[in-house]
């Protein structure tokens, strides 16, 4: 089951941290590591921190230019954050995220966990691409964790939840009658909803991305299926048609 789990490192600054993160993934049976636009990745500097098992992940890691590309095939995307408040609502802990992730994996979906740069973390723009936000609780004001430590904690919680469900062999049982909508499909839906809600003045044009946040969080929380994606896209198309017809001189009154 954990074969469908991806660890995504967005613009990691230090190659040594990438190597240590690869070791953490190998410790927990996670075999897919993706780097997004790393500014100065050096495999030779990463390898000593990865040890032999983590080195296998370094040999197969993927490097992509954008976060959207890294998570496009995922059905659920978890973004990690140390900062709370403002746009960062509905934040959960790794212990809460792990059973959700395992349910998505058991249903045949793909899960991505995204970690931001060591110095700044994920920006508001990047967290908008995430289904849920995860915060690792810490003591007092010491909220900053080493990148590899954070990767290990998230992977451990998912590994533990998978084994608690009896899924240690890594495979989901039974048919999957309705797959979850992928990240790319959900982003297409959000874009369609944004246009439609602006057209009918449900949200205001001054800051539409902010007003779309509750809509995004609601849809991510319910676990959208492909049939539901098709339904909502059809609703948007029908509203767009109705709005367009209503604005024509020969349209119905």
Descriptive account of the structure:
- By secondary structure, the protein is an alpha/beta fold.
- It has two domains: 2-164, 3-Layer(aba) Sandwich (Alpha/beta knot); 183-246, Helicase, Ruva Protein, domain 3 (Orthogonal Bundle).
- The protein is 49% helix and 11% strand.
- The chain has nine helices and six strands.
- The protein has helices at residues 15-27, 43-60, 67-71, 94-106, 124-127, 147-164, 183-199, 208-222, 226-246, and strands spanning 5-10, 32-36, 62-64, 76-80, 111-115, 132-134.
- Strands 3-2-1-5-4-6 form a six-stranded parallel β-sheet.
- Strand 1 (5-10), helix 1 and strand 2 (32-36) form a beta-alpha-beta unit.
- Helix 4 packs across helix 6 and helix 7 (183-199) packs across helix 8.
- The protein is globular.
Overall domain count = 2
- Looking at the structure, the CATH topology of the largest domain is Alpha/beta knot
Distance between the termini: 55 Å
The biggest beta sheet is recorded as:
6 strands, parallel
| Overall form | globular
Q: Stretches where pLDDT falls below 50 for ≥5 residues?
A: 167-176, 248-253
Gyration radius, in Å:
20 Å
List the helices and strands in order. EHEHEHEHEHEHHHH
The count of helical stretches stands at 9
Named CATH architecture of the largest domain: 3-Layer(aba) Sandwich
């Amino acid at each position: 089951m954990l074969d469908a789990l991806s660890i995504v490192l967005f613009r990691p600054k230090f190659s040594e941290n990438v190597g240590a993160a690869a070791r953490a993934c190998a410790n927990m049976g996670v075999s897919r590591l993706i780097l997004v636009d790393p500014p100065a990745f050096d495999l030779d500097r990463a390898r000593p921190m990865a040890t032999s098992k983590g080195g296998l992940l370094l040999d197969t890691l993927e490097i992509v230019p954008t976060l959207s590309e890294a998570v496009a095939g995922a059905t659920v995307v978890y973004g990690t954050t140390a900062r709370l408040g403002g746009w960062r609502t509905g934040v959960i802990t790794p212990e809460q995220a792990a059973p959700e992730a395992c349910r998505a994996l058991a249903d045949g979906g793909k899960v991505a966990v995204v970690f931001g740069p060591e110095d700044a973390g994920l920006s508001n723009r990047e967290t908008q691409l995430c289904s849920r936000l995860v915060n690792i609780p810490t003591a007092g004001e010491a909220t900053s964790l080493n990148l590899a430590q954070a990767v290990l904690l998230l992977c451990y919680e998912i590994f533990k939840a998978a084994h608690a469900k009896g899924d240690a062999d890594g495979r989901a049982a039974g048919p999957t009658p309705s797959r979850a909508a992928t990240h790319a499909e959900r982003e297409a839906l959000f874009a369609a909803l944004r246009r439609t809600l602006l057209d009918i003045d449900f949200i205001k044009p001054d800051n539409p991305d902010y007003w779309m946040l509750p809509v995004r969080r609601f849809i991510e929380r319910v676990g959208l299926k492909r049939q539901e994606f098709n339904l909502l896209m059809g609703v948007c198309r029908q509203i767009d048609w109705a709005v367009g017809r209503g604005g024509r001189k020969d349209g119905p009154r």
